[in-house]
Amino acid sequence: MDGHDVAPGLGIDLNADLGESYGRWTLGDDDALLDVVTSANVACGFHAGDPTTLLRTVRAAAERAVVVGAQVSYPDLVGFGRRFIDIAPADLTAAVLYQIGALDGLCRAAGSRVRYVKPHGALYHSVVYHEEQAAAVVEAVVAYDDALAILGLPGSALLRQASAAGLETVREAFVDRGYRADATLVPRDQAGALIDDPVRAARRAVRLVREGAVDSVAGEAVSVNARSLCVHGDSPGAVAMARAVRDALVEAGIALRPFVDAVS
Question: Quick one: fold of 13-251?
Answer without folding.
Answer: TIM Barrel (3.20.20)
